[in-house]
Amino acid sequence: MPILSRAKKRVGKELSSAAMNADAKQTDFCVYLSAILLAGLLLNAALGWWWADPAAALIMVPVVAKEGFDAVKGKACCDSC
Asked: With a threshold of 0.90, does the pTM exceed it?
């Protein structure tokens, strides 16, 4: 996903496309959330830390909540949008 995000940013810049830049930003959020999820799952599976997966979910809450509130308010996800 990080490679996809960089490619979207490059294409968005070349085309001066606000939509592609916004999509690249959303892909960045997906990367962050996926990394947090993977870390929680790996800690649970490798070390038997049963609480790592729920902790990862709690770490995601502020990011998801902010995106949700911004969407309801109609705020753009990036400055060029």
From this structure: no
